[in-house]
């Protein structure tokens, strides 16, 4: 049964890694619904947030293959109920009375007002930004852009930190070092 | 300035060197003694430096870059060391892609260094520029581009560490020409870990206990040994496990020679053209213990039916392989050399003699219906199986067997026999025709004390036949057995069995292989008659240098047994 998954990938900051990661999804014919990437809270570690719709079996296999990339530190898979997620949408819309009414009702931020257009920003789930797009469309949306999902997990535990600590412990254990060498 | 002289190294802890010298010094520190390569514009500076390292680094000049990679694979597979290749940018680099893909599929440790255009020209479609890091992303374990001379030692250290650690694989280091020519202090530190890379995962202790419990309870178990046993140098650990558990053991194609074929517990090869017993009994097994193997579709047939009445324990170093094809009931992550003794310590000493006897009954059926007619045909032309058998007997089943891909590969794997580990070099996962000849060259250089025998078909030989020139120049005493049936035999077999005998473009009209052999300085003999076969094999064996023995075989021979593609392995057909 297909469902939505939010995959976070933590990696070293290496040229070309984005394409290496997306290729794993391509090979398994899994379409990426959205993808954002930026430096994480830890300096030098990059975080990818990837949203896909697929089966539990496939997502498990895909993340193991992503994790196999030498420069990938760790991946985590979440279902939508395990994260707080948002995305930003920007709308450039032709000015009219109706548009201003809509904009007021939908709790958006006005970024710029010109004589013939207005640029507004809405944050929310994809369904919400999509809904506003649908409502604005009859009045002339000149441009519309969405950021892709960013997410934080609800769990109190910071999984990446735990993982890095575990790695550090393993590194200090000579048995493990011997095996690696 | 020759800063690579021993004096310069003695007088300064970090001597100044060119990038090219730094690369070759790095190779020496990593224990490299042999390079397979082909020069070209963007790698000339390295070749220029190599001129001063001829006493320490043997360079084998191949005739095509694909040959360099396959030769390095052969070298790595028999020696357990990292194979190293050196080629130029653009076409030199792209010619290696098939070899890299082959090495990735078959977990062979390789480091390929490619020249690249100057960093100021990157991305400009300069002469012989290709985006090689981009191209090889899908066929390497890791790759990188080096644009600064100072970065060369660290990149090479990482390359060797990644290539040989964990599940081995090919690595590409693409070095721009200006980095090869630049000068920097040389300092080298061997790598022992990378933060983002866990080469050997740790097994879950609960899984070890559960695996031991299943082993102790099993009535009809089968051990399936893969290449992980060879790559992990775990032959002794496997034998100790087998001795205590008393279980029958089968091998995957790439696992062959980990267990001697005359071992009392050995029951044959798994897979599409494997032995009858380990396939037909798959349905009867109540426990399958997969050791360092990846459930290739040529092994499992239809995975939904593979071991359908068995629990499955999977000992595997690569977490991405666990559950990829067949769901393991008990995964045991780790190097099998570490995990097998954990199991051996926890299991009871058992005797599965009655169960092994059931495999022997299968052997008798296979012997009568398949092996006897294949090895001792009543008449007609020479058969591939008997040619393999004759050569195997001449070498007392103790040579390094190298094969190409196709029918001869399967006949050789089935009938050659092995006494010692690391005795088979074959292209398993990728199935690369043309692999055999260059791989045999590398195998002989990697194991000079051993006899190396290549089995190759008339199709595969002609895919990389230019490497006969490498044999001529480097005087590599490889023994080549050409099984010539004037067909692309395996495809023809499929056309016969599944495409109504429509032999669409599988018949080959061949050149005179004798002239080609002699032109390249090889000894040569051609046999067509059964009575001459043993004598011809003896002549090949006794010859001093490289030898091509052409055996004109039955043109429409078929490899059996056979599991039809996608069928359950228990539906194996004997004819």
Can you walk through the features of this model?
The complex is a heterodimer of chains A (181) and B (575). Chain A has 181 residues and is of the alpha+beta class. In chain A, 35% of the residues lie in helices and 39% in strands. Chain A has six helices and nine strands. In chain A, the strands form two sheets. In chain A, strands 5, 6, 7, 8 and 9 form a five-stranded antiparallel β-sheet that branches. Chain A has a four-stranded antiparallel β-sheet with strand order 2-3-1-4, sandwiched between helices. Chain A is elongated and about 70 Å long. By secondary structure, chain B is of the alpha/beta class. Chain B is built from 24 helices and 20 strands. In chain B, the strands form four sheets. Chain B has a six-stranded parallel β-sheet with strand order 3-2-4-5-7-6. A six-stranded parallel β-sheet of chain B has the order 11-10-9-12-13-14, sandwiched between helices. The model of chain B is unreliable at 1-11 (pLDDT under 50). The A-B interface holds A 11-12, 15-16, 19-20, 23, 27, 60-61, 64-65, 67-68, 70-73, 167, 170-171, 176-177, 179-181 and B 133-134, 137-138, 141-142, 145, 162, 165, 192-200, 202, 318-320, 322-324, 335, 338.
Q: What fraction strand of chain B?
A: 15-25%
The number of E-state strands of chain A comes to 9
How helix-rich are the residues of chain B, as a percent range?
25-40%
Based on Cα principal axes, name the global outline of chain A.
elongated
The biggest sheet of chain B, with number of strands, parallel, antiparallel or mixed sense and barrel status, is: 6 strands, parallel
Q: What would you call the structural class of chain A?
A: alpha+beta
Task: Give the total of beta strands of chain B.
Answer: 20
């Amino acid at each position: 049964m297909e469902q939505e998954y939010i995959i976070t990938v933590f990696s070293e900051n290496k040229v070309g890694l984005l394409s290496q990661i997306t290729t794993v999804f391509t090979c398994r014919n899994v379409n990426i619904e959205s993808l954002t990437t930026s430096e994480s809270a830890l300096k030098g570690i990059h975080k990818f947030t990837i949203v896909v719709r697929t089966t539990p079996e496939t997502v498990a296999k895909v993340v193991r293959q992503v994790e196999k990339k030498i420069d990938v530190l760790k991946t985590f898979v979440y279902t939508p109920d395990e994260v707080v997620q948002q995305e930003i949408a920007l709308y450039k819309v032709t000015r009219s009375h109706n548009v201003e009414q809509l904009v007021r009702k939908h709790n958006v931020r006005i970024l710029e007002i010109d004589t013939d257009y207005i640029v507004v920003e809405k944050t929310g789930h994809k369904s919400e930004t999509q809904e506003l797009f649908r409502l604005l469309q009859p009045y002339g949306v000149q441009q519309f852009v969405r950021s892709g999902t960013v997410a934080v997990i609800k769990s109190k535990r910071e999984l990446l930190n735990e993982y890095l600590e575990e790695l550090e412990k393993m590194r200090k254990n000579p048995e493990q070092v011997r095996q690696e060498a | 300035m020759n800063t690579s002289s021993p004096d310069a190294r003695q007088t300064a802890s970090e001597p100044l060197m060119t990038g090219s010298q730094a690369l070759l010094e790095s190779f020496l520190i990593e224990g490299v003694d042999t390079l397979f390569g082909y020069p070209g514009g963007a790698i000339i500076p390295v070749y220029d430096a190599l001129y001063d390292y001829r006493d320490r680094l043997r360079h084998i000049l191949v005739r095509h870059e694909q040959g360099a990679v396959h030769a390095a694979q052969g070298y790595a597979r028999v020696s357990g060391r990292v194979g190293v290749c050196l080629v130029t940018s653009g076409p030199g680099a792209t010619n290696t892609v098939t070899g890299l893909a082959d090495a990735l599929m078959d977990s062979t440790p390789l480091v390929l260094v490619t020249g690249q255009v100057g960093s100021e020209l990157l991305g400009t479609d300069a002469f012989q520029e290709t985006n090689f890091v981009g191209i090889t992303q899908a066929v390497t374990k890791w790759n990188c581009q080096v644009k600064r001379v100072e970065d060369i030692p660290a990149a090479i250290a990482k390359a060797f560490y990644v290539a040989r650690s964990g599940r081995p694989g090919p690595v590409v280091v693409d070095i721009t020409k200006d980095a090869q020519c630049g000068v920097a202090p040389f300092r080298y530190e061997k790598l022992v870990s990378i933060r983002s890379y866990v080469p050997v995962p740790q097994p879950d202790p609960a899984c070890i206990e559960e695996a031991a419990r299943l082993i102790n309870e099993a009535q009809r178990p089968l051990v399936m040994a893969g290449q992980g046993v060879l790559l992990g140098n775990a032959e002794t650990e496997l034998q100790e496990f087998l001795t205590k558990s008393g279980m029958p053991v089968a091998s995957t194609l790439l696992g062959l020679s980990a267990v001697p074929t005359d071992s009392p517990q050995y029951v044959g090869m798994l897979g599409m053209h494997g032995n009858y017993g380990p396939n037909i009994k798959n349905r009867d097994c109540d426990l399958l213990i997969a050791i360092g193997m990846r459930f290739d579709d040529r092994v499992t047939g239809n995975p939904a039916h593979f071991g359908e009445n068995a629990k499955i324990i999977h000992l595997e170093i690569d977490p991405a392989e666990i559950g990829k094809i067949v769901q393991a009931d008990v995964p045991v992550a780790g190097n099998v050399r570490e995990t097998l003794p954990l199991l051996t310590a926890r299991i009871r000493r058992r005797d599965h003699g009655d169960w092994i006897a059931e495999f022997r009954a299968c052997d008798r059926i296979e012997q009568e219906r398949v092996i006897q007619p294949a090895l001792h045909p009543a008449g007609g032309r020479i058969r591939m199986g008997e040619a393999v058998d004759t050569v195997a007997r001449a070498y007392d089943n103790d040579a390094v067997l190298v094969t190409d891909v196709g029918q001869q590969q399967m006949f050789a794997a089935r009938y050659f026999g092995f006494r010692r580990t690391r005795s088979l070099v074959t292209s398993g996962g990728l199935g690369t025709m043309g692999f055999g000849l260059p791989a045999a060259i590398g195998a002989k250089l990697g194991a000079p004390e051993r006899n190396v025998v290549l089995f190759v078909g008339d199709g595969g030989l002609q895919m990389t036949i230019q490497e006969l020139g490498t044999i001529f120049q480097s005087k590599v005493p490889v023994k080549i057995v050409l099984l010539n049936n004037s067909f692309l035999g395996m495809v023809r077999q499929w056309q016969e069995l599944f495409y109504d005998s429509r032999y669409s473009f599988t018949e080959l009209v061949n050149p005179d292989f004798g002239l080609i052999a002699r032109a390249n300085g090889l000894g040569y003999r051609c046999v067509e008659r059964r009575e001459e076969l043993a004598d011809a094999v003896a002549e090949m064996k006794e010859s001093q240098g490289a030898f091509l023995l052409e055996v004109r075989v039955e043109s429409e021979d078929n490899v059996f047994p056979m599991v039809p593609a996608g069928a359950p392995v228990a539906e194996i057909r004997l004819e």
